[in-house]
Amino acid sequence: MSAPLRVVALWFPDWPLRAALGGAPPHPPTALVHANTVIACTASAREHGVRAGQRRRVAQGHISSLRVLPHDTARDERAFLPVLQLIEKHAPGAALLRPGLAAVRARGISRYHGGEAEAGAALIDVLGEAGFPEVRVGIADGPFTAELAARGRTPCTVVPPGRAEDFLAPLPVQVLKDDQLADLLVRLGVRTLGEFAALDETDVRDRFGERGARLHALAGGSDSRAVVPRPPDPELVRSVEFEPPLAGADQVAFAVRQTADAVMLALGEASVVCTEVRIDLVDDDGMVFSRPWLHPTCFDAADLVDRVRWQLEALGAENAKKPVDEARAFGGIALVRIVPVAVDDAAHHQPGLFGSGTDERLHHAISRVQTMLGHEGVVTAALSGGRWLADRQVLTPWGERAVVTHDPERPWPGSLPDPLPAEVFRPPRPIGVLAPDGQTIHVDDRGALSAAPTRIDGDEVRAWAGPWPIHERRWDAAGGKKGHRLQIIDDHDRAWLVFCTGERWWAEGRYR
Length: 512
Prior knowledge:
Blueprint: E1 6-11, H1 15-21, E2 30-34, E3 37-41, H2 43-46, H3 56-62, E4 67-70, H4 73-90, E5 95-98, E6 101-105, H5 106-113, H6 116-129, E7 136-141, H7 143-150, E8 156-158, H8 164-168, H9 179-187, H10 193-197, H11 201-219, E9 238-246, H12 249-255, H13 257-269, E10 272-283, E11 288-294, H14 301-321, E12 333-345, H15 357-373, E13 379-383, H16 389-392, E14 393-397, E15 423-431, E16 433-434, E17 455-456, E18 459-471, E19 482-490, E20 495-501, E21 504-511
Parallel strand pairs: 2-4, 7-8
Antiparallel strand pairs: 1-6, 1-7, 2-3, 5-6, 9-12, 10-11, 10-12, 13-14, 15-21, 16-17, 17-18, 18-19, 19-20, 20-21
Helix pairs in contact: 1-4, 5-6, 12-14, 13-14
């Protein structure tokens, strides 16, 4: 049997939990469950006795606050793909053994870094800087021994060439991951890989078949499996150059139609669709203007052309707002590059047999309106955290992913409880809140009204409640935002949410 190849194994402990929870450990006590059985659990859960293989009820009996999440193998693979691409940038030819475990042939990278230990340390540094400090590296003969070396106590374990059998000898037979064979070997008195490897190969084959013979070879350090790198990502980037440069947005948009079609053709050949794209505009001075674009479903050629035009229009509008001494003389666009950033399997975006017609028509209708009104002409709302209504409403152009900077699930003392106003004024509208004598009502330092409200913008006040103080960033030298809120119902049965800052009243929202 030929000598096994030297292999670098990169193991990311508790990867399914990393994919489900995001971010590096430590994590709160959490378990991933499939078929009512614990598949993986965090280190904080293991401290309380939770173990993989336990029934869900048993695990929750160890710690009542255990968070239970469903295990999703597809999510594990999606989350590991960027990590695999990062490894490939520094060690070409990476092979995916399973999510959370990758292998690379050691010969090339060890020669580049001057040794196997140096190569392992370099990979640990690169992955640590990228946000994966928990990675463990094992270097040995064959993927099996390299994986077990990566599970050692040190960040990088190197098993010298030809010493795989000595390294494996004290390990229990359970590491072969064949429960039936391991139980039988233990009953026969064979408890370690060294004892299993000492058995006669012919006897093992006769008793356990080809499967047993294969595991017997692994126990002896004879791993002949090849490290097969995953196929390279398809080249999806397309670009077009203009000579002479084009200055008009419509001219450039018309000229990139064929390039957009070429991008869609490349995506179709790879059986993927694009959900995020980056468009690079290079002017005649060599300046590069890049911007990522998102899509609620997937891009088509017309969508790409629209994004190019919108980006050019935004670039011209931004340049026009600058002072004369800061504005650049814009000669024209010399190159347009379309770079698909995020792709997805095309099968996930095929229309269903039933129930997909309405959503598809709605998407096309909104997209056409956005094409006519511009990128920011159609927006969608997302709920954010905050105390003021304007802060809780995040408006995002149609097709882009909302970026919520404040978690709405966190407590926000002073925020308005449900039900919230149906209409939010951005910016707030000035409004008059008057006392019986016609004077504007004031709020003193103790939060008391100078008089009961009787009129609001010329209408009689039927009922009111408040005031409720809001004072943000008390430690700020500028004082932050502060005011007092009132809820008022006028004689037309309209409910208003108003607030006072200084000596003025503003309408923050209106209930329907």
